[in-house]
Structure formats: structure tokens, C-alpha cells
Amino acid sequence: MANIHDNILSTIGNTPVVKINKLAPEHVNLYAKIEAFNPMGSVKDRLALGVIEDAEKSGTLKPGQTVIEATSGNTGIGLAMVCAQKGYPLVVTMAESFSIERRKLMRFLGAKVVLTPAPLKGSGMVQKAKELAEQNGWFLARQFENEANANMHSNTTAPEILAAFEGKQLDYWVTGYGTGGTLKGVSRVLREKSPQTKVIVAEPELASLLRDGIEQKRNDDGSPAESHPSFSPHPVQGWTPDFIPKLTGDAMASDEDKTIVTVAGPKAIECSQNLAQQEGIFVGISAGATLAAALQVAKSAVQGSNILCMLPDTGERYLSTPLFEHIQPDMSEEEQQLSASTPSCQF
Ligand code: PMP
């Protein structure tokens, strides 16, 4: 079949599952689903297409209407691509604490980015998006509550995983959560079609909202009524906002069998760097965090277990963050010595 697409949107999804070799203990088979292969480099391209096409079908989004969303970046970048292709203006609200690359990418794709103060955390940017939507009659994507987010994962991510493991038992599926769209959408399909698969939910050690078990207070529409008391700022961008999103809450309530694993920030960063340098897999901090959770699971997994972890986005989104802190633009001493070791092109 010719690999020609009518437009960029049909290249979303169908991301590869790749075996992790050097970083995995020998007694298990560890695999990663690399969502960086989506056109804008993250898992959120799926949500963006799912939410917009669902709203088009239901008529809640009118031709040419402005779309607005609160996002830590990847959703905004995915929405910016989808809105650019389909011709909807896009406004994004985002806390100033997320990486500069994210803002620039969205603006490059034609979106407007309204920053919110970092101390007001994730719920601040959500509140701002709601206000702007109400005042201007814009379509609010509501990624944290929108069922179209989880449905997209049930319809694409989950069948891709089942197809990849056809004829092989998938023992563990490991994911973090930002909205919980991936978690809710995939885990309900696995429960039905691959009931032997254990679902592992990872969250940052500094924001172990699920592990701590304190209920999230919500408004009638499912949005958070207040910040969760177990939250503190953590370096895993895209994971765990300062509240338990409705989609995550639904997923946790629907199945008693999920295991919660916490990951320390430095470990997440180390795993992301190891993926790049030992496996040639260039992904972000939440990907490193998910791998770290998978490695914890692997420790107690029986011989020959198959483990799949989700790697949500590309490492290129983190050039200005602690992930790249140890990477200097200038030549190191070793590089200078290499330069001096032959006659040409010296400074
Ligand atoms: N990692 C990153 C980098 C993300 O941007 C997101 C989405 N916010 C996630 C993980 C989690 O995905 P989901 O929203 O489906 O839970």
C-alpha cells in the first residue's frame, strides 16, 4: 500500500513498540510504546484529534469557532496541529513553569498562548481557560474530563497494543497519568480483551495523589474544586497535575486491580538519559519516569514476563529543562583535546 496520506492527521497513532535491551534485567522482556512517533511528537496528538472530531460530530464545535484549552504543552501542541489543519483558531492557557519550547512550538503552529502564574498551578490555567471560553463563546476542549480523550485511546492505543502482543501474553502494562485519558481508555480494553494483564499506574513521589488516598473534591462537571493536598511541584512535566483528573478518578474507581508505583524525579531524568545513551531512544522526562516504574515492576516479575511501558513524548521538548542540565553548548576539555590532536580547523 502506498504510504501517501491525504493530510497530516491520518499519521497520528500506530506508534511502534520497541524492545528495551541493555536497560532491562535479563529475566523479563521489556518493551516501550514510543509515542514520540506521532507527528507532533507526543501521545497528546491522539487526544487532540479525538476531542476535535468528537465535537465536530456532536455539533458542539462549529466551523471556524475558536478552540481553547488549558494544557501543560503537549495537548496544546497537538491541538495546534489539528486546529491548523482543520482551520480553527486556537488559544491555549498554560502555567509559566512549563518549558519555553512548548510555548514557542504552539505559537509557531499559529496558536495564541496565555500564560498563568506558576503559584496558581494547574488549576489556575484551567480556571483561566474556563473564564475565557465563557466570556467569548469558545469551544473548551476539557481534556481532563472529556470522554472523547479516553475513547480515542480505547479506539487506537489499546487495539495497537493488543495487535502488537497477539500470540504473546502481556503481563504488565505501565503508564503514568496527566489527564488519565491513556489510563482509562487503554485499561478498560485490556480488562476485557487481555484480563491477565496487570495495570501499573505510576505517579511522582512528590505528588503521590493516588497512593495517599485522599479524595479529590470536584465541581458538578467533574472538574477539580480545589488543589489536592498531596501535591507538590515535581519535575515530571505532563504527569500528575495538582488534582486527580476525573478521567483518572474514573479509571481508578472502575478496577481494584491497579497497582500504584511512585517514581522520584532524579530517577526519571536518569532513566530518560539512559534510554538516549544506551538504547538510542530519545524521549522526555515522563518517559524516563514510566521506564523507572517498569524497572521496579520487573524486579518482582517472574522469569519471561512481558512488560510494556508507555513513552509519552520526545526529548526535544526539554532542551531548556533539567533533562539537559549536564549538556553544555561549548566543547569539553576532552573535545578540545580531540580538536587539538590534528592540524586543521583549530580555533
Ligand atoms: N507525559 C507527558 C509528557 C504528557 O504531556 C502527558 C499528557 N499530559 C502524559 C504523560 C499523560 O498522558 P494522559 O493525559 O493520557 O494521562
Topology record:
Elements: E1 17-20, E2 28-34, H1 44-58, E3 67-70, H2 74-86, E4 90-95, H3 100-108, E5 112-116, H4 121-136, E6 139-140, H5 147-164, E7 172-175, H6 181-193, E8 198-204, H7 209-212, H8 246-253, E9 259-263, H9 265-279, H10 285-300, E10 305-311, H11 333-340
Parallel strand pairs: 2-10, 3-4, 3-6, 4-5, 7-8, 7-10, 8-9
Antiparallel strand pairs: 1-2
The chain binds 4'-deoxy-4'-aminopyridoxal-5'-phosphate (PMP).
Polypeptide structure, described:
The N and C termini lie far apart (52 Å). Helix 2 (74-86) runs parallel beside helix 3, helix 5 (147-164) crosses helix 6 (181-193) and helix 6 (181-193) packs parallel to helix 8. The chain has a six-stranded mixed sheet, sandwiched between helices. A four-stranded parallel sheet has the order 5-4-3-6, sandwiched between helices. The mean pLDDT is 96. By secondary structure, it is α/β, with parallel strands linked by helices. The protein has two domains: 8-37 and 156-324, Rossmann fold (3-Layer(aba) Sandwich), CATH 3.40.50.1100; 44-140, 3-Layer(aba) Sandwich (Rossmann fold). It is built from eleven helices and ten strands. The site of 4'-deoxy-4'-aminopyridoxal-5'-phosphate (PMP) has 20 residues, from helix 6. 4'-deoxy-4'-aminopyridoxal-5'-phosphate binds at residues 42-44, 72, 74, 176-183, 237-239, 284, 286, 312-313.
